[in-house]
Amino acid sequence: MTTYAGAEEWVPHDGGMRKVRATLGNCRGCDLWEDAEQAVPGEGPVRARMMVVGETPGDHEDKEGHVFVGPAGRLLDRALAEAGIDRSEIYLTNAVKHFRFERDGKRRIHKTPSAGHVTACHPWLARELEIVKPALVVIMGAVAARSLIGPSFRVTQHRGEKVELPDGTAAIATVHPSAVVRSQDFTRDLGLFVDDLRAAVALLG
Ligand code: URA
Ligand code: SF4
């Protein structure tokens, strides 16, 4: 595994989310900034009770500079609505802030960030957690789980269960919405994803 210097030296520990957003683009904690268009910051109220964590910006997010605006985002919007969650009330972010891809002609094909990238970018997510102090974190997929809990956590075994982050924050894991987008059994997997989001709402009380 390639290890990187990591984001720590770039992450401001004074000031709030405004400062995080203003400085994120300067980060050189790993090599992903080199080919991406921009770093994509988290979005949502800093006082949100629920923080939802995905993987990394995709092609659309990288171009537009906003989280979850592509196909996975549309699926997420639909599932949040079905679970009765207002997207404007959650803090939505990613475990890794720059898009990782491979070129195939003109197309940019998403590539899962490596363990080294996830570790390198973790200080940004940790800072967001420190500022927002959510009552509940929804972990979407293996990359977010690796960043927030560790490499041995299996989303497929523990989805929909209450878990705890190392700092004691309550969390619940589910699949990544792009897994639902690609599913062979879309209706079933959308239903299961919505069930997990409803379980998250129930945990918030
Ligand atoms: N997938 C993610 O994990 N995050 C985004 O912002 C878009 C797609
Ligand atoms: Fe920094 Fe994260 Fe971007 Fe790497 S992916 S350069 S650690 S913000």
TrEMBL record:
<keyword id="KW-0234">DNA repair</keyword>
<dbReference type="InterPro" id="IPR005273">
    <property type="entry name" value="Ura-DNA_glyco_family4"/>
</dbReference>
<dbReference type="GO" id="GO:0046872">
    <property type="term" value="F:metal ion binding"/>
</dbReference>
<keyword id="KW-0411">Iron-sulfur</keyword>
<keyword id="KW-0408">Iron</keyword>
<keyword id="KW-0004">4Fe-4S</keyword>
<keyword id="KW-0227">DNA damage</keyword>
<dbReference type="GO" id="GO:0097506">
    <property type="term" value="F:deaminated base DNA N-glycosylase activity"/>
</dbReference>
<dbReference type="InterPro" id="IPR005122">
    <property type="entry name" value="Uracil-DNA_glycosylase-like"/>
</dbReference>
<protein>
    <recommendedName>
        <fullName>Type-4 uracil-DNA glycosylase</fullName>
    </recommendedName>
</protein>
<feature type="domain" description="Uracil-DNA glycosylase-like">
    <location>
        <begin position="41"/>
        <end position="198"/>
    </location>
</feature>
<dbReference type="Pfam" id="PF03167">
    <property type="entry name" value="UDG"/>
</dbReference>
<dbReference type="InterPro" id="IPR051536">
    <property type="entry name" value="UDG_Type-4/5"/>
</dbReference>
<dbReference type="InterPro" id="IPR036895">
    <property type="entry name" value="Uracil-DNA_glycosylase-like_sf"/>
</dbReference>
<comment type="similarity">
    <text>Belongs to the uracil-DNA glycosylase (UDG) superfamily. Type 4 (UDGa) family.</text>
</comment>
<keyword id="KW-0479">Metal-binding</keyword>
<keyword id="KW-0378">Hydrolase</keyword>
<dbReference type="GO" id="GO:0051539">
    <property type="term" value="F:4 iron, 4 sulfur cluster binding"/>
</dbReference>
<dbReference type="GO" id="GO:0006281">
    <property type="term" value="P:DNA repair"/>
</dbReference>
